[in-house]
């Protein structure tokens, strides 16, 4: 039997899905200049989207094998404790003993890791579970000092160094990319709104520009 005309009509009008992808920062910062209006902005905030992140946890006694595979097959260098090895938008960031965060321009760039590291390391995609922001500008260090629980002075913390810490009582993973200074901060996606609220208040006195990437 054929479908009743009414059923066919209703089906043709129904949306294919009620869900749509949302960026971690949607509803937070919007592109533009904010805070103190005089002079050049002291802070630049790049709200990142579409990146790839994955947690690597080495199996017991397999760290040397993990290091070899990452180097030979992916050209990645496994960082020592408290360090990040990043070239461009790709690399590895230390997270904890035996644990690292793989960073890539998109999730597709990490899709070969699980099979390549089978039996050597557990690989867990984190691309949709973290919010990522890049902070730079001449006042970036001064702004972060308002909330970060580690010493960011150049004598104590410089390019290629990592801190797993908290900012305004929110757990973060922070690494310094260069001496400008430029920092990258990863925060749990569920805390992105709260973290943004802190960021905009902390940056206001310096004047800040928001960019979407």
Automatic annotation (TrEMBL):
Residues 1-24 are annotated as: Disordered. Signal peptide: none annotated. Transmembrane segments: none annotated. It comes from Methylorubrum aminovorans. This is Sarcosine oxidase subunit gamma.
């Amino acid at each position: 039997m054929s479908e009743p005309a009414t059923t066919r009509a209703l089906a043709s009008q129904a949306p294919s899905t009620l869900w749509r992808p949302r960026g971690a920062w949607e509803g937070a910062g919007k592109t533009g200049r904010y805070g103190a209006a005089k002079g050049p902005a002291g802070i630049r905030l790049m709200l990142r989207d579409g990146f790839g992140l994955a947690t690597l946890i080495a199996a017991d006694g397999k760290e040397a094998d993990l290091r070899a595979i990452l180097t030979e097959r992916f050209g990645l260098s496994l960082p020592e404790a408290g360090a990040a090895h990043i070239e461009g938008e790709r690399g590895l960031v230390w997270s904890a003993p035996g644990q690292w965060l793989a960073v890539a321009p998109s999730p597709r760039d990490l899709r070969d890791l699980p099979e390549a590291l089978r039996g050597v390391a557990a690989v867990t995609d984190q691309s949709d579970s973290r919010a990522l922001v890049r902070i730079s500008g001449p006042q970036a260090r001064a702004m972060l000092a308002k909330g970060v629980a580690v010493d960011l002075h150049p004598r104590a913390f410089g390019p290629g160094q990592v801190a797993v810490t908290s900012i305004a009582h929110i757990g973060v993973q922070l690494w310094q990319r260069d001496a400008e200074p430029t920092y990258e901060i990863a925060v749990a996606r569920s805390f992105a709104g709260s973290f943004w609220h802190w960021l905009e208040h902390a940056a206001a006195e310096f004047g800040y520009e928001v960019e979407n990437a």
